Amino acid sequence: MAARQAAAWCYRGGSISAEPRINDRIRVPEVRLVGPSGEQVGIVPLAKALELAQEYDLDLVEVAANARPPVCKLMDYGKFKYESAMKAREARKNQAHTVIKEMKLRPKIDPHDYDTKKGHVVRFLKQGDKVKITIMFRGREQSRPELGYRLLQRLAEDVQDLGFVESNPKQDGRNMIMVLGPHKKKTEAMAEAREAQAARKAERSGASSADAAEEPAEA
């Protein structure tokens, strides 16, 4: 009953909380009671519900305050809060955040630099991230916007298996900008990365075991 006592002290503090009312904090003449296993007990006086909570060594938790009468359930509230916190933590851990990477190129980029930049774009798209491609014009290059446009088209074609043009090339002052979006969702890319990491780990572990088995025993 420690969870019941702790929660009672918390509520007596008078602070506004989003947590449900439990046990002595519930102030209604009767409730629609749900048992520990989800069974419908029915409408019972509040005193009877609290008595059952003591018998089961559980908490009486108001789960639907706006119902008439309010719906309450018998549960271990401390355990319920802990499991809810763990589920929320796991959900945040697996949540995919949209990330926009940026790659800057010059309109007269040499082949080696282009391959290097393209490699980064490929990696970003495989990770499920968007990529903002910026062509930077300097001096007289500003009078040749078609150079930047052709370069962006070339890059889009080179990575079309991994991404698509989400925002077409457009002039922005001295720069020309295009945004590439990944075909794979971030969650899918994360899952594939975890699977690949697990496979590599298993492969290394298997190789180590094989090497150990091949070592000759000392005489």
Secondary structure elements and pairings:
Elements: H1 2-12, E1 30-34, E2 40-45, H2 46-56, E3 59-64, E4 71-75, H3 77-94, E5 100-105, H4 111-126, E6 130-136, H5 145-158, E7 163-172, E8 175-182, H6 186-214
Parallel strand pairs: 1-4, 5-6
Antiparallel strand pairs: 1-2, 3-4, 6-8, 7-8
Pfam families: IF3_C, IF3_N
InterPro entries: T_IF-3_C_sf (IPR036788), T_IF-3_N_sf (IPR036787), Translation_initiation_fac_3 (IPR001288), Translation_initiation_fac_3_C (IPR019815), Translation_initiation_fac_3_N (IPR019814)
Main location: cytoplasm
Observed structural traits:
four-stranded mixed β-sheet; alpha/beta; 219 residues
How would you sum up this structure, described in words?
This protein has 219 residues and is an alpha/beta fold. It is built from 6 helices and 8 strands, in the order H-E-E-H-E-E-H-E-H-E-H-E-E-H. The chain has helices spanning 2-12, 46-56, 77-94, 111-126, 145-158, 186-214; strands at 30-34, 40-45, 59-64, 71-75, 100-105, 130-136, 163-172, 175-182. The strands form 2 sheets. A 4-stranded mixed sheet has the order 2-1-4-3. The chain has a 4-stranded mixed sheet with strand order 5-6-8-7, with helices on one face. The radius of gyration is 31 Å and the shape is elongated. The model is unreliable at 1-17 (pLDDT under 50).
